[in-house]
């Protein structure tokens, strides 16, 4: 039982696999990453080849998903599901033995999961109580994931110089069409105003954002309601949005003015 613990990460997004790997190195330095899979089928093949102690499985992957892969792995490893639906995952897992992580994974939440797995290993407990428990929880999570779809975007990916930036959606102040690109205006972890451009059309992005948080103000502008400092109306049935902590003034067209009449 003194052998070094090993892990496998399965996620179809390379950036998220890399981010989880870096967080794991900090939270569990003794853990050795022995495999990275791009889908559930590859996860099964790599599991059989490496027999890792812990498997971090993204729920949604092309082909065989994480839940199906977990069923194949069974009680031979400690399975940690990675999901985008925290409100459903909490209900599905809080009262049972399995672990889960919500994207984007935070260091504090990962540390809690690592501590839980380490305690389980020290107590010589099996990875899960029974295969029946795994099947019950997997089925429940699958139903709630399906009920939640289509899900709102949680982050946007933008190229900044030679680096790829994952921008949390809740940090975005506004989005604005800029020629053939979309400008993203957001605040980093220090509260500094940042900007980047991506190729995805504004219309496509807005369709995936939470409508309770982001609204269209103009055919070329989408705004986070939390970022609005105040709105000034003009006599031509249009208005201007003033953004908190920025000099930017965003137009509100006649088509969308009704969305802001109560503000």
**Poorly predicted runs of 5 or more residues:** none
Q: What structural class do helix, strand and pairing data support? A: alpha/beta
What would the average pLDDT be, to the nearest integer?
Answer: 83
Count of helical regions: 7
What is the rounded Rg? 22 Å
Helix content bin: 25-40%
Distance between the termini: 62 Å
Strand order of the largest sheet: 2-1-3-4-5
Order of helices and strands: EHEHEHEHEHHEEEEEHEEEEE
Biggest sheet character: 5 strands, parallel
Please give the number of β-strands.
15
Question: What coarse outline follows from CA principal-axis ratios?
Answer: elongated
Characterise this structure:
The protein has 263 residues and is an alpha/beta fold. It is built from seven helices and 15 strands. The chain has helices at 14-27, 40-50, 66-73, 86-93, 107-122, 131-148, 202-206; strands at 6-10, 32-37, 54-58, 78-83, 99-102, 155-160, 163-168, 172-178, 181-187, 193-198, 214-218, 221-224, 228-233, 239-243, 249-252. The strands form four sheets. The chain has a five-stranded parallel beta sheet, sandwiched between helices. Strands 10-9-8-12-11 form a five-stranded antiparallel beta sheet, with no helix packed on it. A three-stranded antiparallel beta sheet has the order 13-14-15, with no helix packed on it. Helix 3 packs antiparallel against helix 6 and helix 4 packs antiparallel against helix 6. The model has no long low-confidence stretch (mean pLDDT 83).
